[in-house]
Amino acid sequence: MSERFSMGKLLLAMLSVIWMIVVQFTSLLEIVMPDICFFIVYGLLETGLIYAGIRILVEKGLKSSMEEFRIKKFYIKPVWILTAAGLPLCVCIAAILFLEGDFSLHELTGYQMMKTLVKSVFVIGIGTAVAEEFVFRGVVMTAVEKRWNVFTAVLLPSLSFGVLHIVGAGFSFWDSVVVVIAGSVVGIYFSVLTYMSGTIWFSVTAHAFWNVITTLISISEQPSDNALMSFRLKSNDLYLTGGMFGIDASILSILMYLVFTMAIMIAYYKRNGSIFHCQK
Predict the structure, then answer these.
(1) pLDDT mean across residues, the chain
(2) Is 268 within the bounds of a domain?
(3) How far apart are CA 85 and CA 92, in angstroms?
(4) Pick from 223, 210, 212, 220: which is nearest to 247 by CA?
(5) Residue range of the domain that includes 94
(6) How far apart are the C-alpha atoms of 94 and 263, rounded to whole Å?
């Protein structure tokens, strides 16, 4: 990092979180648009507004470059796609193999199936992944690193990321606890992907694949209207099912987050001989 941030600049960087919340109000377009068109427009509009707002904040407010915040020109590598798809698929397969439940395919018309796919890809996948990764692994993580150090930058935004997922959700106390823990651990995973690759696009890819796959294959106590297929868990054990949040917050997912995080770090260490020797 080229410059140590003052507390004022750190607080200015936090405006990216406010901007992410403001952008969500574009969902009001649903009132005047057909649902499939709305999902496409909303996902792309959310992505564009997040990028534009963060670019103004970084370049005009923080007097830095987007590249310094690891928001570089878009590119992905095949290994990123394999890694990104591997985590949710491993969780889904493990849950179906080792947890008791009933598997069912949803009976959908062609239009309903298209609607489900488009919403999953553009809104839950691309839109959410870009917004949350640009803010938490892009602006906030880099700002915290510039203020303090890399370890604080991995932990603090990840905890904030976990807390974000319970705000206004109406979860019970223990549901909130498991969601914050799971959100923090997967936040660390996304942070490690960003540091190891030197770009935000690895974590965006992983986040998008996770959202899309775990939405289309619903694994929870209750079936989801957004899914193509469901594995309805018979257990009511909060730690096995993830409670109200679903399999994302289960102990199974948390263990998988940790396994993939360690695997990425070990692979990086073997190739570079150090950890968090970040690319710029």
Answers:
(1) 91
(2) yes
(3) 11
(4) 220
(5) 7-272
(6) 18
Structural tokens at position 95? 């849950």
pLDDT tens digits for 24-48? 888 888 777 888 999 999 999 999 9
pLDDT band of residue 223 (cuts 50, 70, 90) is: confident
- Give me the number of domains the chain comprises: 1
The neighbouring-strand residues paired with 219 are: 231
Q: In Å, how far are 2, 52, 226 from 199, measured between CA atoms?
A: 17, 18, 31
Check residue 76 and give its pLDDT.
92
Q: At what angle do helices 150-164 and 173-197 cross, to 10 degrees?
A: 140
| Cβ contacts of 184 within 8 Å, gap of 6 or more | 158, 159, 161, 162
What is the band of 144 on the pLDDT scale with cuts at 50, 70, 90?
A: very high
pLDDT at 279: 43
**What pLDDT shows up at residue 2?**
62
What six digits make up the tokens of 189?
């995973």
Task: Give a yes or no: residue 41 inside a domain.
Answer: yes
Question: From CA 1, how far away is CA 51, in angstroms rounded?
Answer: 22
- Measure CA of the first residue to CA of the last residue in the chain; give whole Å: 9
Q: Is 164 a domain residue?
A: yes
Q: What is the band of 222 on the pLDDT scale with cuts at 50, 70, 90?
A: confident
What's the pLDDT at 61? 95
Residue 112 lies in a domain: yes
Q: Under a CB-based contact definition with an 8 Å cutoff, are residues 139 and 54 in contact?
A: yes
Torsion sign, CA atoms 258, 260, 261, 267: positive
CA 136 to each of CA 36, 61, 240: distance values in angstroms, whole numbers, following the listed order: 29, 17, 27
Residue 81 CA to its chain's centroid (Å) = 15
How many CA atoms lie less than 13 Å away from 160 in the CB half-sphere? 17
- Measured CA to CA, the distance from residue 48 to residue 57 in angstroms comes to 14
